[in-house]
Specification:
about 210 residues, 2 domains, Arc Repressor Mutant, subunit A, mainly alpha
């Protein structure tokens, strides 16, 4: 976490620093990122930067955490109530993530760097943040939903745990198919992944509802 000094800065200055960090880490990765370029781009000294953040690793992990919440905040969990079913919501959110990624290419590029190199020691820590934010997000979605209509003993928490498990199980395949940057191949690759997810969601949907549901 940043120091109190960082949070005492005007919001605009905080954003200037974090934008410079996001750009540097997204374009160059953790190992190739230069704090010299970050301070030059954000108009502060290196000494000041490390008054705000303990070290390069803590800075990187904070930027990743911000990127994750940028994604999550773009898709409010309560929106699930406006869909015919949670499965329709999952499908739509997946497509909306495509548009969001195209509008925020550096955020996408940073998170894909992490996903494609899970053995990297710093990226492994970042993946822990990915798992935590995902768990919190899906738990909040499930909390909005009544369990009426599901098979006895099944809750939406169970359903989303299953969805998350399938997604994690397919992670290597999905990551391999998605490009590292938002380029001309991005949309078609994303749509292929979405088609696979649609198939698995249909399988789950058929298994969790009570038999009388059409």
């Amino acid at each position: 976490m940043p120091s109190r000094q960082f949070f005492n800065l005007p919001a605009e200055k905080q954003e200037d620093i974090l934008r410079a960090c996001l750009r540097e880490f997204a374009l160059n990765g953790y190992d190739g990122a230069s704090t010299n370029r970050i301070v030059e781009d954000s108009g502060i000294s290196k000494g000041v930067l490390f008054k705000y953040f303990e070290d390069k690793e803590s800075l990187f992990l904070y930027v990743v955490d911000r990127a994750l919440h940028t994604y999550a905040d773009a898709f409010p969990t309560r929106d699930v109530l406006s869909y015919d079913s949670p499965f329709a919501w999952i499908k739509d959110v997946t497509l909306r993530k495509l548009r969001f990624s195209k509008e925020h290419p550096l955020t996408y590029q940073l998170l894909m760097r992490i996903a494609k190199e899970p053995a990297h020691p710093v990226y492994a820590k970042a993946m822990g943040s990915v798992a935590r934010v995902s768990e919190q997000y899906l738990s909040e979605v499930a909390s909005w939903l009544p369990n009426d209509g599901l098979r006895d003993g099944v809750t939406w928490h169970h359903v989303f745990t299953l969805v998350k498990g399938i997604t994690l199980g397919m992670m290597d395949q999905y990551v391999a198919r998605l490009p590292e940057v938002v380029d001309e191949d991005f949309e078609s690759a994303f749509e292929q992944v979405h088609a696979d997810l649609d198939l698995y969601l249909d399988i789950i949907r058929r298994g969790v509802y009570k038999e009388e549901r059409p």
